[in-house]
User: Which sequence fits this backbone?
């Protein structure tokens, strides 16, 4: 199979014209992620269809279109519109009743829990002809929506970027905040601590995240 994508933890292969195989490099099972995606799809949330899961291998619908990141790079002047779109995806996700009782809950998470993506940023949104679809649900947990929104903020503000891209991201996040339906400020500390546990962070990124969570 042809390798068509490589993330920090997984590789994506073409499996014909209409399917992809996503494989975790460390061999961890993908069953819970597949179950999460199916649960979301049954409730009308925009995710790819799951065809099969076997150990670390997850076979899904192949989505056609750019990622939101690619679209931002081509049309940076649309940053505010894309930010508002991501905010609506957050709001729509957190409006779902639940979450399922088999989904692990974030530690120290109080109050009414919702299903959280915890990695919802432009790389994980595909802009298809049918609208945006959200991928990569490996980090999904139950918890407070404010932590999910804060994770997006911490991820995007915790990247070392040139000044013009930092300015664009600020506008993007400002628009997201207007449509997401949750106040990220109450989730910042928990989000920063979770982000700092990522072994893939560079030293410079970790410094930025620490300042955000202070």
Assistant:
């Amino acid at each position: 199979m042809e390798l068509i994508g490589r993330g920090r933890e997984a590789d994506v292969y073409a499996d014909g014209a209409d399917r992809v195989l996503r494989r975790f490099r460390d061999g961890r099972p993908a069953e819970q992620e597949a179950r999460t995606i199916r649960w979301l799809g049954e409730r009308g949330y925009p995710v790819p269809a799951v065809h099969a899961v076997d150990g670390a291998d997850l076979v899904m619908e192949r989505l056609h279109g750019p990622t939101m990141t690619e679209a931002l790079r081509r049309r940076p002047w649309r940053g505010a519109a894309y930010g508002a779109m991501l905010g609506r995806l957050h709001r729509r996700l957190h409006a779902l009743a639940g979450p399922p009782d088999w989904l692990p809950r974030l530690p120290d998470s109080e109050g009414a829990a919702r299903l959280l993506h915890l990695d919802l940023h432009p790389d994980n949104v595909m802009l298809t002809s049918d609208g945006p679809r959200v991928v990569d649900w490996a980090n999904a947990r139950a918890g407070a929506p404010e932590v999910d929104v804060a994770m997006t903020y911490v991820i995007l503000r915790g990247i070392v970027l040139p000044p013009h891209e930092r300015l664009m991201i600020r506008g993007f996040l400002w628009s997201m905040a207007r449509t997401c339906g949750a106040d990220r400020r109450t989730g910042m500390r928990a989000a920063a601590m979770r982000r700092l546990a990522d072994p893939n962070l560079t030293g410079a990124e970790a410094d930025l995240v620490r300042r955000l969570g202070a």
In short: The longest strand covers residues 19-24. Helices lie at 31-42, 68-74, 79-94, 145-157, 163-179, 188-196, 203-213. The chain has two domains: 3-61, 68-213.
